[in-house]
Amino acid sequence: MNVNKVFLWVASANFLFPAASMAQEAAKPEAGLSVHYEELTAPDFIQAVAKAEATCVIPVGILEKHGPHLPLGTDLIDCREVALRAAKQEYTIIYPAYYVGQIFEAKHQPGTIAYSTWMMLDLLQETCDELGRNGIKKIILLNGHGGNESFLRFFCQAQLASRKDYAVYLFDSVEDDSMEAALKKLRKTTLDGHAGEEETSAMLANRPDLAHVDRAGQESGEDQRRLANLKHAYTGIWWYASQPNHYRGDGSYGNKELGEMILKLEAGLLAEMIRSVKEDTVTLELQNQFFDGSERPLKTKQ
Ligand SMILES: [Zn+2]
């Protein structure tokens, strides 16, 4: 990558589209452009990149058991729904189904697909490199699975390992008090977290055909607290110690109204994030500055 060329682009604040024809393409994006990456034709894709201001959202799910009553793809189905709703509010391109993440803790349950650590990192890195090569310079990771949290944060940190001409952002929503209060009013259970009241509700709102609430009582979602005596310690077995059934909470309390509110709130926060990422020029500028400095550390002013 030619650093000087990068700076020129930055200065013109229109650095994503070097060729004049791209600008002409950008000028007339079709109104009905799909948000689904895989539905775009090649010429559409050029327009979609322009309309999305070079942003793309990768909803990162997983394939794992969700109690006796919800589908293996619950996290994938939910986070894609949130992404699609947000893209309707703030246009961006939604990457196809992505379920390569961290799920070793469910390997004892049927249907789990647990890729190796290297595969997780390499596949996501190559996916981002290819998106970057295709003009997507602001890649948004939307995590749908709690077990991916540490992996995706590490992945974001690892972006500084070598120079990139694109930036990776992880959706990091913080519900504000009013949202939390609204959700609290509708919640009926206190223990939740996996295929419990919230996830069952979201599925009832999004794909009621996949929420078998009548089966929710077939297994316990109680916390087994088998490591309760361990003090100030984190171990990889913690989830299995608490929720060996891969179920936390009680899905029989799921309701469509709560689900609708959860999806609406998350989509609103994500749309807000996409908007701010589109306006953001600082991240890429700082990244370039950092990469320059990391190639000549002795020149870094002390
Ligand atoms: Zn889940």
Describe the protein.
There is one protein chain. The chain has 302 residues and is mainly α. The chain has one domain: Creatininase (Rossmann fold). The protein is 44% helix and 6% strand. The chain has eleven helices and four strands. It has a four-stranded parallel beta sheet with strand order 2-1-3-4, with helices on both faces. It is globular, with a radius of gyration of 21 Å. The structure holds zinc ion (ZN). The site of zinc ion has 6 residues, from helix 4.
Secondary structure blueprint with pairings:
Layout: H1 3-11, H2 20-27, H3 42-51, E1 55-60, H4 74-89, E2 93-94, H5 117-133, E3 138-143, H6 149-158, E4 167-170, H7 177-186, H8 197-206, H9 238-242, H10 256-279, H11 282-295
Parallel strand pairs: 1-2, 1-3, 3-4
Helix pairs in contact: 2-3, 4-8, 4-10, 7-10, 8-10
The structure holds zinc ion.
Zinc ion (ZN) binds at residues 66, 74-75, 145, 194, 199.
